[in-house]
Design goal:
Helix content: over 70%
Strand content: under 5%
Membrane topology: Multi-pass membrane protein
Shape: globular
Protein name: DMT family transporter
Number of helices: 15
Pfam families: EamA
Keywords: Cell membrane, Membrane, Transmembrane, Transmembrane helix
Oligomer: single chain
Order of helices and strands: HHHHHHHHHHHHHHH
Radius of gyration: 18 Å
Subcellular location: Cell membrane
Structural class: mainly alpha
Length: about 300
């Protein structure tokens, strides 16, 4: 049982379950706390929760942390703050189902960047897999009408989420530059960086008069995002990437729409349209094909 729980596939499956829940929490928070303030609260709570367990590790790793501070800050600011700010803002304009399905385009970003920057080879199965995934994402972003993509007529929320996907895909590729630290130090340092980076976003939101202080529902959603998607999922994701590499690990992001769609229907009462089902079929087929290709490439 312990071996199964520690398997990279299990770690990544749990990661995507918590990330699917992140979209649900973000949707529940919409109207109950403004998105930039939610991002700031999330990483504030995350840092406070982690500090008692991580500070001793950070102290031991401090020479490396100090030397690689800029790298850690950029990883945390982009992968943690900018992505989540995009996600929580997007959920004010589009559905949780759409957001979770659109996240499945991350493997495309990872494959392309790895090829362009590092000439990482991909198999025919992986190419076919992410092309299927791309079709699923296109169906979702266009709400079942692919002609809207030709006119670049996208819902504001869907466009924001696709920008967030680009950011997180870049973060995944950049994890290869992560310094060699304990996982406790890594997550804590990235979370502190995310907290620092979230402050100017929250201040800008306040200056624009768009700040919405959290009520009980907003605060509960913020607590969920701090504990499960932030602390637990990010730790499991980093361990999964270390175990099987970014190309294969990022394919598991395609499970996010599966979990997200189920949770959105059960918890939010959102409607699952026919194009959502078609998109999910493309996503599932894509991950199966691409993962088969990933195993052959190892």
């Amino acid at each position: 049982m312990i071996r199964i729980l520690a398997h990279p596939y299990t770690l990544l499956a749990l990661t995507t379950l918590f990330w699917g829940g992140n979209a649900i929490a973000g949707k529940l928070a919409a109207g109950h706390v403004s998105p930039m303030l939610l991002t700031l609260i999330r990483w504030t709570f995350a840092c406070l929760f982690m500090a008692p367990f991580a500070l001793s590790h950070v102290k031991a790793d401090w020479p490396v942390v100090r030397e690689r501070f800029v790298t850690l800050f950029l990883l945390g600011a982009c992968g943690f703050t900018l992505f989540n700010a995009s996600l929580y803002t997007a959920l004010n304009y589009t559905t949780a189902i759409n957001v979770t399905i659109e996240q499945s385009s991350m493997p495309l970003i990872v494959f392309v960047l790895n090829f362009l920057l590092f000439r990482t080879g991909v198999t025919a199965f992986q190419v076919a897999g992410f092309l299927l995934t791309f079709v699923g994402v296109a169906l979702t972003a266009s709400h079942g009408d692919l002609t809207t993509l030709l006119t670049l007529s996208l819902n504001r929320g869907d466009a924001l989420m696709l920008f967030g996907v680009l950011v997180y895909g870049t973060y995944t590729v950049a994890l290869r530059y992560k310094p060699n630290l304990s996982w406790q130090s890594t997550i804590f340092c990235l979370s502190v960086a995310a907290l620092i980076a979230a402050i100017p976003f929250a201040l800008a939101e306040y200056a624009l008069g768009a700040t919405n202080l959290p009520d009980a529902q907003g605060l509960t959603a913020a607590l969920y995002t701090a504990i499960f998607p932030a602390l637990i999922a990010q730790s499991l994701y980093i361990k999964g990437v270390e175990a099987i590499g970014p190309n294969r690990a990022n394919l598991f992001v395609n499970l996010v729409p599966i979990y997200g769609a189920i949770l959105a229907v059960l918890i939010l009462g959102e409607t699952l349209h026919g194009y959502h089902l078609a998109a999910l079929a493309f996503v599932i087929g894509g991950i199966l094909l691409a993962e088969r290709g990933g195993r052959r490439a190892v």
